[in-house]
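Hi! If you just cloned this repository, the fastest way to understand the data is to look at a raw example. We've pasted two of them here, unedited. The first protein comes first, obviously.
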Amino acid sequence: MTTVKAVGAVSGEPAEWYAIDWPTIHRNVRRLQVRIAQATKESRWSKVRALPSLLTHRNRVSQRRLVASRE
């Protein structure tokens, strides 16, 4: 006889999702995107390489992924 083990999402996730301050997330992502574009325009390649990591590693949850998954 085989037993089935249910695997699902963590129950705390929906509560955390609605507690996110979306306007602040959007503002931070937009500001960093502008900084990346400016650094690219000025050919500051070390900045261009460094700034995207702020988008993905700044918070426990990636701001860029949050914005992309919300839209």
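Ok, and the second one:
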Amino acid sequence: MRKTRATVWILVVIAGGKLEGIASKFNVGKLDLASGSGLFVKEIGSGPPVIVLHGGPGAQHDYLLPAFGRLADEFHLHFYDQRGGGRSQISDPHKIEWRDHVADLEVLRKEWGIDHLLLVGYSWGGLLALLHAAEYPSNVKALILVAPAAGWGDYHRRFKEELGRRGRSEAVHRMRAELEASGLRHSDPALYKQRRFDLNVAGYYMNPEDAYGSETFVVQMQAQQATWASLRGHGPELKSRLQRLQVPTLILHGRHDPIPLEWPKELASVLPDARLVVLEHSAHVPYAEEAEETFGQIRRFLREYTK
């Protein structure tokens, strides 16, 4: 039997932005899995349940907050650190496969007592949502894919190449030089470390300077590499399954995303019931770059399936 352990209920008030003054109940704990590993889970808000899947693989959910927390005024949001990342570490992260992530989500669905999932997946989390829906189509009510990672073709390679090119751009080079000349390395080491992180993710933004103040995260590289390696050669099967997937899907993709726009266009053409919305003023972080439009689209779509 699967059991929940170390569960702590905390009543908190989230400060900042539109969440200020909203009292929310968090359920934070470790969920034991059949494999003996554990997943760190967090719940916020009240209303119809919505599962939010972070990017990576090998990252954690924290960086999606407080941004996605604005939906907590209307929905019961379920977050978790996926296997091998954040506070869901395992002893052999280099053995993680995409099937493990899919199976973990199915375990969580049952533990949470949700018959039909409403999945919001960001970046790799969008691809995970598709993989899960392909495996368990009758358990998914609707999908929202925000800047989804590519599941086949050469799009992932092109994404990495474009991201590398942006990281070597004149604008980022100038920002790095300004940081090193600022003296922050000695006067404020914590801020210097934050700025270094911001520069590392600047290529994800349409305007590199918008990366300043990004929510930080750490990627467990063994977990990431192992997951991507397990997906090699799976693209044709995934595409075939998605062509038969009768699940309403909203795809949100920034026009300036380093993931080529051809990918979400192809994905929308493959899925029988999908709608693509291109966000004109964002790249790979539309929930920060174009927050009002992004969450307006998400909220309207979720309402259609929670009436």
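That's it. A detail worth noticing about the second one: Confidence is low (pLDDT under 50) at residues 1-26.
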